[in-house]
Amino acid sequence: MTINIQKIPRIIKIISRSFRQYRWKFSLIILIGFLAGLSGAFGISTLIPIFSLLTGQETAGLGFVTNIIHRAFNFLHIPFTLPYVLVLTAILFILKGFIQFIGKYYTEKIYTDYGNSIRIGLFRKTLRASWPYLINQKLGYLERVVMGDTSMMATVIGQISSLILTSTSFIIYAIFAFKISPSVTIITTVFGIILFVVFRPILYKIRKASQNVRDSQKQIAHFVNENIVGAKMIKTSGTETEVIARGNVYFQKFRDNSLAMALLNHAVGAVFEPIGFVFIAVLILFYYRSPSFEIASFTVIIYLIQKIFTFIQQGQSTIQSIISSAPYIQSVNHYRKEVTLNKEILEGDAFTFQNMIEFKNVEFSYDTDRGILSDISFSIRKGEIVGLIGPSGSGKTTIADLLMRLFPLGRGEITVDGKNIAGIDLNNWRRSIGYMPQDTFLLNDTIENNIRFYNKSLSQDEIVKAAQMANIYDFIQELPEGFNTIIGERGIKVSAGQRQRIALARTLVNNPEIIIFDEATSALDNQSELMIQKTIENLRGKITMLVIAHRLSTIMNSDKLIMIEKGKIIEEGSPDKLLADKDSHFYKINNIIN
């Protein structure tokens, strides 16, 4: 099987588009490679005049190098003697080493800078992407692209830089070799081209093996993330053995694909070196009896040819790596394009809230076949506590999501003081809303940093005040480390009620205009729920609150209740008014519970 020639221009196009901003840096690498090759080739070529001075014989093999040295020495009034030529040789090789170091350093700098830049850019774009897009992506996929695929893509730019250094040095060495013996150089070049053609099928297989490795990595990333998140369920159900067995299938597949790719890569290197040695041996046998044979010139050209073969081998290996990395480049470019297309629009007018938020004939569906909300209309006055109640799946959380502008409306509008919220600056809007979900997100960090949540401008007094308002301050003070206590992954070291109150302090410290409690107390014990309710009561009239709940006790003190069923509002009013109406759904539910 041979590599599809039509795909090579496509791969080159992918690479050129991905790294076009680095073309000037590549130009500098070309210059560095040229200087390194020139100093190296010129340095080894000085062996010819050295041999001539040692033996007292004239050599005709590389007259242009000897002439250049003669002229330079005459200009500097340096005698053309063995010690001075040896010093020149040493200087040239030291210069070559220094230039190569600069080239390697610059290559590594490009590699690390690009990797850092692409990761930061993708992470920024990921967080700026719309919520509907993000919830449709697998966690393992996002992690693999942002970390794994970007690392491979950064490696490619380093490989391209190395290929440029190798190619420029190859050209210089080939020119010097051609000056010594055109016939040997031409034969070597033709032989190198033949080798490249012979190894083309392996390049194709390496690319396929790389794609298989990438697919295996994707499957493993998703599998591991999914089962780590569900580790508690796995343990409590006693299914560790079954999960491990399933994981072994993925890991074994990854092992087999990785081994296949490694064998193909190493096979090329293992074959290349002996082929080069045999080729050089044949050249020696062929030219040894030639009347024009000179040991000095032939020694130099053998060294140059050996270096040329080394450059060809390095170039072949680098090209293989670049080709095998093409799927990673495509993956990153595809993801970058997707998140850019799904970017949230942030710009808008400043947020102000003086009177009322209104839902006006709002409709929404996650897909065209199944409606979630239908003709939702209600208002929330500033400072009011509005309770949303209804069975699971009725659309309560969706209303909260729409208020936070996580999803676009299907129909209708949401306004604040008569102004459509879609025209308000998105960051400004969301920073004015505090969100308290049932499943609290906490960092594996200190309590203080969880309350602060990346806001470096907050003072210690503000953090303490927020903790007091959330009724968590006394608990924190009882801890040996106080606010500096590490609470573990997702707050595992504290209770559910304590996690919720830490999260509430995080919400309150930012002085939001609106707070959404989305089933925030549904999984708490009675005491923890009472403490959250106490905080809500203390905030009455100061902050506008939307409270979503299953428990009637959570919303009994609301100014207004809205009952949702199957995506529609079926009744609305104050708790007292609804309880006074024996035909209301709320009255019937309350009677059943009590």
From TrEMBL:
The family database entries (InterPro entries) matched by this protein are listed as: AAA+_ATPase, ABC1_TM_dom, ABC1_TM_sf, ABC_transporter-like_ATP-bd, ABC_transporter-like_CS, P-loop_NTPase, Type_1_exporter
Stated membrane topology is: Multi-pass membrane protein
Where in this chain does the record put each ABC transporter domain?
A: 357-591
Question: What keywords tag this UniProt record?
Answer: ATP-binding, Membrane, Nucleotide-binding, Transmembrane, Transmembrane helix
List the SUPFAM superfamilies hit by this protein, alphabetically. ABC transporter transmembrane region, P-loop containing nucleoside triphosphate hydrolases
Q: Which residues cross the membrane?
A: 26-52, 72-95, 156-178, 184-204, 263-287
Spell out the protein name for this chain: ABC transporter ATP-binding protein
Species of origin: Candidatus Nealsonbacteria bacterium RIFCSPLOWO2_01_FULL_41_9
